Amino acid sequence: MRKSHPVRRAVLATAATVSGIVLLLSLKPASDPGSAEAAGGAPPAAESVQGGARPIGDGTVTGDAAQTQYGAVQVRLTVSGGRITKAEAVQAPKGGQSDQITSNAVPRLNQAAVQTQSGDIDAVSGATYTSAGYKESLQSALDKARASAPADTGGGDAAQAQTVTGDAAQTQYGPVQVRITVSGGRITKAEAVQAPKGGQSDQITSNAVPKLNQAAVQAGTADIDAVSGATYTSAGYKESLQSALDKAGG
User: Fold this and answer.
1) CA torsion 64→65→67→70, rounded to 10°?
2) What is the end-to-end Cα distance of the chain in Å, rounded?
3) For the region Disordered, what residue ranges are annotated (predicted)?
4) pTM recorded for the entire structure
């Protein structure tokens, strides 16, 4: 019997190994369509308000009703300053045990929508179907809100920016007046054009106002904490800030 050459055997073995790897790779699925939901995450299309490429428009918007095994779920959002300020379910499963599940789950889902500012919220334990329907309708509402947002005309944020000065708030140590710059539905700059001055007020103002300005930009609302040691200045700042926000449309 003729023996095969060692080099030939090595070549044949290598070819067989490569063929086996190629076959295994061709049988492996490209992706697991259920992996995102199984892990508790939202589908890739569920873009958050803060991280989305386009801001959401102000006003009230109602998402499409999502049909579940126990009834329809439909979510309505109130948006102000590009942020969700209120979420509510205008439709939810009802009757029998659904009443108890809905009364427990919906308030939590509403709160989660406002806190996360997106459709990526966790399901409530014991309310899987209601939670899934809520998230679906919530995402629909977010999509509609984005569609209603003013389109970028090419001028960038500067084209949409507006500067608004709130009414002067009178305090025990002098008036406080806040001016804000709003762009894309967000506060991008806050400054005090009036603040208590003279004597000890100079030191208090120089310490408190920069902190209040920073807090206003970070919070995007007038619901900011007072600066320790500057109670009156902080109260006046918040009052004037709220006035500026009202003038800017929320």
Assistant:
1) 160
2) 93
3) 32-62
4) 0.43
Count of positions (residues) in the chain: 250
Identify the top-confidence range among 27-36, 135-144, 177-186: 135-144
Task: Provide the CA 2 distance to its chain's centre, in angstroms.
Answer: 75
Structure token digits, residue 235? 């109260």
**How does DSSP assign 3-19, residue by residue?**
PPPHHHHHHHHHHHHHH
DSSP secondary structure, 45-113, as one string? T---TTTSSSPPPSEEEEPPPEEETTEEEEEEEEEETTEEEEEEEEE---STHHHHHHHHHHHHHHHHH
The pair of structure tokens assigned to 158 is 């500067």
Dmax of the chain from CA atoms? 112
Question: pLDDT, tens digit, for every residue of 88-108?
Answer: 999 999 999 999 999 999 999
**Which tokens go with 164?**
């608004």
At 48, list the tokens.
């958050």
Which backbone phi and psi does 247 adopt, to 5 degrees?
-70, -30
| pLDDT tens sequence across 211-233 | 999 999 998 888 999 999 999 99
How deeply is 142 buried, as exposed, middle or buried, from its count of CB atoms within 10 A (0-12, 13-18, 19+)?
buried
Which stretch of DSSP H or E encloses residue 238?
Answer: helix 231-247
CA dist., res. 198 & res. 175, Å (int): 13
C-alpha distances (whole Å) from 106 to each of 40, 46, 74, 187 are 18, 20, 11, 31
Q: Give CA angle at 95 (90, 98), nearest 5°.
A: 75
**pLDDT of 136 over the 90 cut:** yes
